[in-house]
Amino acid sequence: RAMHAVIDRQKNHGMHFRVLAKALRMSGGDHIHAGTVVGKLEGERDITLGFVDLLRDDFIEKDRSRGIYFTQDWVSLPGVLPVASGGIHVWHMPALTEIFGDDSVLQFGGGTLGHPWGNAPGAVANRVALEACVQARNEGRDLAREGNEIIRRASKWSPEL
C-alpha cells in the first residue's frame, strides 16, 4: 500500500494502478492493496470494483465506467487477492462485504487493536461482523440499506461487537 503513492498516484509520472495490477498478476503475485472505497483511503467505488474484478476474474468484459478499457481473457492465469485496509472497522463491514465479496483480504489494524477490551475481542468483533454480513448477503438482504441494523443485531449475540 505504501508504494502506491510513489508509483501510481502521481499526476505527472508513474504508472496507472491497472498496469501495476496486471503486471503483478502476470508475474505470479498473490495479493495487492486494491483500494478500499470506505475508511481513510480514497477510491471511486466503480473503479475499485473494476480493479477487484481485474485481479480475480478469469474473464473481464470491457466496461469503461469501471476502468476496464478492453475485454481481458486471463485464461488459466491465477488470480490475485485484493487487499483492503486503511481505517476500516466493523461498521464498514457491510460495504466491504458488498465490494470485495468472499475472496479478499481485509486488514483491520486499528479496527482490531483499538478495541477498548483489547486485541482478541477486537478480532472477535471483526469476525462476528463479517459472518453476520456474509450470512445476510447470502439471505438476499440489502447490505447497503440494512448494514447498520445487521451489525446491531449481531452485537446482541457477541458483546465484543
UniProtKB/TrEMBL annotation:
Superkingdom per UniProt: Eukaryota
Keywords, comma-separated and alphabetical: Chloroplast, Plastid
A Pfam family that the UniProt record links to this protein: RuBisCO_large
Domain Ribulose bisphosphate carboxylase large subunit C-terminal, residue spans: 1-161
KW tRNA processing (keyword) present: no
GO terms for MF: magnesium ion binding; ribulose-bisphosphate carboxylase activity
Protein name (Swiss-Prot/TrEMBL): Ribulose-1,5-bisphosphate carboxylase/oxygenase large subunit
Encoding gene (name): rbcL
